[in-house]
Amino acid sequence: MPVQGRTRKQLRQSIGYNLGAVYVSSTSGSGDTTSLIDNTLIGGDDNWIGYHVLFTASPNEGVLSRVSDFDEGDT
Q1: Lowest mean pLDDT across 7-11, 15-19, 27-31, 53-57
Q2: What is the mean pLDDT of residues 14-22?
Q3: Among candidates 39, 48, 31, which has minimal Cα distance to 73?
Q4: Per-residue pLDDT for 28 more than 70?
Q5: How far is CA 4 from CA 7, 11, 17, 39, in A?
């Protein structure tokens, strides 16, 4: 069996990204206690409502939150 050179996590992210179901990124700056800033997101106002954010670093590591608002002007 050939060696893929990619982990299962990387494969899942790649498949999800290609299906438009997963977007892997990191914050570009500090928000407040209820917001985050990611300058790589593309889309108009409210484009990301309903999507989920999974935090992978402390202090919120493992927390899954639903996006309730998106303001393109803040990116």
Answers
A1: 27-31
A2: 84
A3: 39
A4: yes
A5: 8, 10, 18, 32
Please work out, in degrees rounded to the nearest 5, the angle formed at the alpha carbon of residue 65 by the alpha carbons of 60 and 66: 165
Buried b (16+ CB within 10 A) or exposed e, 22-35: eeeeeeeeeeeeee
Name the residue among 9, 71, 73 with its Cα closest to residue 34.
71
Tell whether the model's pLDDT for residue 68 goes beyond 90.
yes
Find out whether 72 and 43 touch, Cβ atoms under 8 Å: yes
Tell me the sheet residues that pair with 54. Answer: 64
Does the predicted TM-score (pTM) go above 0.85? no
